[in-house]
C-alpha cells in the first residue's frame, strides 16, 4: 500500500520545504494498524536557527502591513482549508487515528474558523485615546515579535491554527513545533498560508522532540511561547520562558468534573458524558472524566450509558461509519491500560469495556467504572483515554467541594433542569471552560483555557489578542513642561 502521507520534507521554513537528514528519524505511525506511514527528521540546531532567523527577518514587514491586509491572507487561508476539508481530514486521521467521521467536522473546520475569526478581527485591533484634561495619552497595540507554538498530538491541525491565527493577526511571526507523534498536519497549514499570500518566514514549522521545543523556548529571538501539552511539560516550559521573561500561554491537562443532578434530563446527561469522555477516544484535554452522578439516579444513568455505548462503532477510522478509533500511539495505549488495571485493583466497579482490542492497532474499548471514590488513582490523574469514572454524591455543597479538590482547573460541566442551581454551581467551580447542559463545545468566539495547574492565558476570542500583543502608552503634553528646577 502506498500512503499519500510522506511530506515533501520534514520542515517548512521561509515559505518552502526544508530537509536536513542529520536530525533523528521520527517515524509516523498510523494508530489503526501500527504501520509506519511516513518518516520525518527532528530539527537540528541549524534547522532551528534557520527557522528563527526567517521568522525574525519576516516580522517587521508583516507587522507593518495593515491589519486588513494581514486579515485578508488569513481569511483566504481559511477558504482554502474549507475547500480542502476532505483531504485535510484524511491527513488528520492518518496522523492521529481519529475517525474520519470526527475529523471531517472537528479539525480542519475548527482551524478554518480560527483563521477566519482572527482574519476578521485583524483590521480592528487598535489602542485607545485617554483624555487627561488639557493633556492626553494614547495606547498603541503592538506585536510581540517572534512567537513559538508547541503542539500536543490530539488536535494537530486545530492546535497549529488556534496559535497561528491570533499571533499572525497581531503582526507576529511564528515557529511552530508539532508533537513528534503527529508531525504531518501543520506542514499542510504552512503550505496553505503561503498559497494564501503569507510572506516567507511568517509561519514556519520545525519538527522535533522535547529537546527541539526547549531550544526554541530559550532562544533570545523569541518573545512568546504558547504550549499545548501536559502539566509537567507546562511547568518546564513556563519556568524556562520565565527565566528569559517571555510571554506565555499554557494550555495544559485536566481532570474535569461533570456533575449530573437528580433532576437532569438523563438522556442529555448521558450524551454529554459520552461526548466528554469518548470523543477522540477520550484524548481530549477538557474531558469531564470525573462524572459525579446523584445517588438517586445513578443506576438509571449507568444502565442508559451502557446501552448507548453499545452503539459505538469501533474500527477502521477511514470508514465514515466508524465513531470510535484507536489511541494515538502504543505508548498512550500502555498508559491507559495501566490506569484501567489500577481502577480494577483499587476496587472500582467495571460497568463496561476495560479491554484492548486485538486488531493490530492501538484500540481500547470505551470503559466505564462506577463506585469510584475520590482517592482512587483513576479519579485523581489525567488518563487521556476512554476511561470514565462515575462517582456518587447526594449534596450540592459536598459535590462542589469534591469537584474542586484537584490541582487541575480546565473544565467543568453541570446537568440540571434547575437553571438557578446550574449558574450557582458553575459560579463556584474552579475551571476555565464550563458547560451547562452541554459538554466540550469550543467555538472560536468564546475564550478557552484553564485555571490552577491547567493553564495560563486564553486561546480564541478577543481574549487571545491580549496574549499576542502588547500596549505602548504615549503621554502627550499640550502645554509647557513645569520642572522644579
Ligand atoms: N488545554 C488544552 O487546550 C489542551 C489541548 C490538547 C492537549 N492538552 C494536553 O496535552 C497532553 C497530551 O499531549 P502530549 O502527550 O503531546 O503532551 P506533552 O506535554 O508530552 O508534549 C506536548 C509538546 O511539548 C513538547 N515538549 C516536551 N518537553 C518539552 C520541553 N522541555 N520544552 C519544550 N517543549 C517540550 C513535546 O515535544 C510536544 O510537542 C495532555 O495532558 C492534554 O490534556 C491540552
Ligand atoms: C481544545 N479542545 C477541547 C478542542 C481539544 C483539547 O484537547
TrEMBL record:
Its EC number is 1.2.1.8. The keyword Ribosomal protein does not apply. It is an enzyme of class 1 (oxidoreductase). InterPro entries: Ald_DH/histidinol_DH, Ald_DH_C, Ald_DH_CS_CYS, Ald_DH_CS_GLU, Ald_DH_N, Aldehyde_DH_dom, BADH. Keywords: Metal-binding, NAD, Oxidation, Oxidoreductase, Potassium. The active site is at 251. Residues 18-474 form the Aldehyde dehydrogenase domain. GO terms for molecular function: betaine-aldehyde dehydrogenase (NAD+) activity; metal ion binding. GO terms for biological process: glycine betaine biosynthetic process from choline. Pfam families: Aldedh. Belongs to the aldehyde dehydrogenase family. This is Betaine-aldehyde dehydrogenase. It comes from Primorskyibacter flagellatus. The lineage of its organism: Bacteria, Pseudomonadati, Pseudomonadota, Alphaproteobacteria, Rhodobacterales.
